[in-house]
Amino acid sequence: MSSKTSLSITEQARLCVNHFSQLRLLFPDSGPPKLAGISYSAVCDELGRFTSWARNTSALQDGQDQNSLGYRLRDAPDIADQVGKLLRDLSGLLEEVCTVLCKSAKAVKSSSEAAGDVASGEGLAASEAQVLLRSVAETITSLLKLSIVNQNPLS
Q1: Residue 58 near residue 69 (C-beta atoms within 8 A)
Q2: I need a surface site. Which of 14, 69, 121, 141 has the fewest CB within 10 A?
Q3: What does the pLDDT read at residue 16?
């Protein structure tokens, strides 16, 4: 597979959706309501905001489709670069959130650790995960703001 920097807008957007799906899978029905201070509903809220942006801009449509974001930005490389950078940033943030939540889930499941160790580790992970999720929200907000530029044809 090619590197993230050479992925199209569509491929990058789909990668973000996949990362969100991975995050959602970390919250089993019978599991804790929060992992590292992050709730399932908070993840779903950000997925909803991202999906709304992706649908409104047609970011998930094939780049050859004339309605797709990639196609519409073919003559606006600066904006396409900004969108690509934001999507790469979002993908990286989602990977980091997933890593923190995976570690937190393992710590919660681990019966070999003392209760105090789990609690202190959970506190650090919660702080980190919350900061990362705020960054995810800010990145999605940037995508939403940038999409205003793309509401009109670029001719």
Answers
A1: yes
A2: 141
A3: 98
Averages of pLDDT over runs of 10 residues in the chain (155 residues) are: 69 97 85 82 96 94 85 90 97 96 77 46 76 97 86 54
CA 38-137-51 angle, 5° bins: 100
Helix axes 77-109, 9-25, angle to 10 degrees: 20
Count of C-beta atoms within a 10 Å radius of residue 18: 12
- Enclosing H/E stretch for 114: none
What whole-number distance in Å separates Cα of residue 11 and Cα of residue 14?
5
Q: Please say whether the beta carbons of 135 and 141 come within 8 A.
A: no
Residue 40 CA from chain centroid, whole number? 14
